[in-house]
Design goal:
Elements (H helix, E strand, L loop, with lengths): L1 E4 L3 E7 L5 E2 L3 E5 L4 E8 L5 E2 L1 E2 L4 E7 L12 E4 L1
Antiparallel strand pairs: 1-2, 2-8, 3-7, 4-5, 4-9, 5-6, 5-8
Amino acid sequence: MLDKTLDQGLIAHGKIESGTLSIGDKIQLWPSGYPAQVGSILDHKNAQVVYARPGENVQIKLIHIEDEKMIQKGDVICRR
């Protein structure tokens, strides 16, 4: 699910399946291959966290993704 607001940018909602995700990580969206960066991470309580671990449901602010058409439901976020 995606949210787009003028003050927040593009926010992706999802679950961390493996590895960790930290603010500032350089990532890539698959299968499109678009590069992005993690701007912020919110946990299930909508509190900002520095990193997320496997099993956690999070909201991720994506930097360098300007159009919600650049990401689709079911896309996978991987580290570059």
